[in-house]
Amino acid sequence: MKKLIATILSVCLAMGLVVQAVSLPLPEGSQTWLYELFGSSANGTTYYVDAVNGSDSNDGTSEKTAWQTVDRVNQAVFGPGDEILFKSGQTFIGQLMPQGSGSKEEGVIRIDKYGGDALPTINAKGTLENRGAVVQLTNQEYWEISNLTLTNPATSTEGARVGVLVVGKEYGTIDHVYVTNCVIKDVISDISKSEAGKKTEAGDELWYGSASGGGVLFVSYPGSEEIPTTFNDILVDNNTIKNLGRNSAGVLISNAFRNIYQQGYEFESDFADWFPATNILISNNDLSYTSTSILLHGCDGSVGNGVVIENNLVYHPDRYDSNSAVWFSLSNEVLVQHNEVYALDNGGSNDCGAFDYDGGVTNCIMQYNYTHHNRGESVMVCNIHWSSAWESTNTTDNIFRYNISENDLWGAKPGHGRLWVQ
After folding, report:
1. pTM (2 decimals)?
2. Number of Cβ atoms within 10 Å of the Cβ of 127
3. pLDDT tens digits, one per residue of 144-161
């Protein structure tokens, strides 16, 4: 499919240029950059976890003296260069919430597998504790999570659950968190946008209205005005994310300092405090049966290597609520390219298309994408004002070009088009 798109660059939608075309700093071709996963420091320690032959009374520092449980891992504080390796093919029960941070100078902390090709599984067994996260990091940086299967199936779907949850609050910039080569599946939630909003209004800040559960979520909260918090150097690559619940995102990057209207803060006075997430690559993921697939809030691609969403396969997204498959709001210079989105069918509600430039989006490019057999439009453009403070944050100066739309718009509401401006 990607080769086909590359050879038919002259084919585009009749309304391919959806907003004012201007000269942007983003290149026409691929902006993919090479993320180098840091090697472990010579000073780091490797810890092994073996559910069958390990013991939590061991020191964990060799295969023969491996730990046995996730709970034992959670008791330790890890440092730069450390590795936490789970035995290949085994299943571990519980929620992984390791402590500590790596560093740029001394090395990251790595979570990975050992002893074979089969992925180890961490199963949270349907819990709703700690936001139902299978893996959670809070105000931690320089972590790499690879080669795991993460699941949180539930017989009762009420509430929200998450595969990997990275939370920041009153910290500053959280650097370098990578999630690669994982399978995140059957992370089941059932909570509507309105229910999530009520929880937010009640003071539970961890409930984000547009994606309360999901696969890989990065969420920051304002907290103290003196310490705004955001993310930098984020990689979500080559993961399979499938079968999520209602109101869940496959991948979410949400920065509260460009999304504070959701958090109950004084919008007029706080809106200027934009502390955007930067240097983000979401690539080569297979996302299916989600509620929405990729969602960004408060990201800025004008810094460093940019913000890029590329080479992702998205199918059967948005089974529950009104969402587009790939969308972003309150963001600048996001590049979306070489993605395929198909078979979206959410009942034909307002947002039912493949892509969406939502409110407050500027200087972004969508190009070389292939959308087909979606109930709604190929792309939607929103220019919504929830407050007078949005007057300076219109959706402007974006480009939609060199994309192919095939057999889209088969069941949308009257008034929708392959390009829908709301």
Report:
1. 0.87
2. 17
3. 999 999 999 987 767 789
Q: How far apart are CA 26 and CA 305, in angstroms?
A: 10
- Where residue 181 falls (left for φ over 0; alpha for ψ -120 to 50; beta otherwise) is left
Query: Which tens digits make up the pLDDT trace of 374-405?
Result: 888 889 888 765 444 445 567 889 999 999 99
DSSP 83-128: EEEEETT-EEES-B--EE--BTTTB-EEEEEESSSSPPEEE-TT--
Which sign, positive or negative, has the C-alpha torsion 192, 194, 197, 199? Answer: negative
Q: How far is CA 300 from CA 271, 276, 304, 335, 389, in A?
A: 16, 6, 10, 10, 19
177 pLDDT more than 50? yes
**And the tokens for 143?**
């972590």
pLDDT at 347: 56
Determine the pLDDT at residue 34.
Answer: 47
Radius of gyration, CA atoms only, the chain: 21
pLDDT bucket at 321, cuts 50 / 70 / 90: low
Residues 54, 48 contacting (CB under 8 angstroms):
yes
Is the distance from CB of 304 to CB of 279 less than 8 angstroms?
yes
| Residue among 345, 235, 347 at smallest CA distance from 288 | 345
Compute the distance between CA of residue 122 and CA of residue 249 in angstroms, rounded to an integer: 20
% helix, strand, coil for the chain, step of 5: 10, 35, 55
Task: In whole angstroms, give the CA distance from residue 245 to residue 191.
Answer: 8
Residues 65-113: tens digit of each pLDDT: 999 999 999 999 999 999 999 999 999 999 999 999 999 999 999 999 9
Both tokens of residue 260? Answer: 């504070």
Helices marked H in 76-233: 193-201
Rounded Cα gap, residues 328 and 287, in angstroms: 17
Tally of residues, the chain: 422
Residue of 24 and 213 predicted with greater confidence? 213
Average pLDDT in the chain: 80
DSSP code of 61? S
Cα–Cα distance measured from residue 38 to residue 108, given in angstroms and rounded to the nearest whole number: 6
Asked whether the beta carbons of 262 and 380 are under 8 A apart, the reply is: no
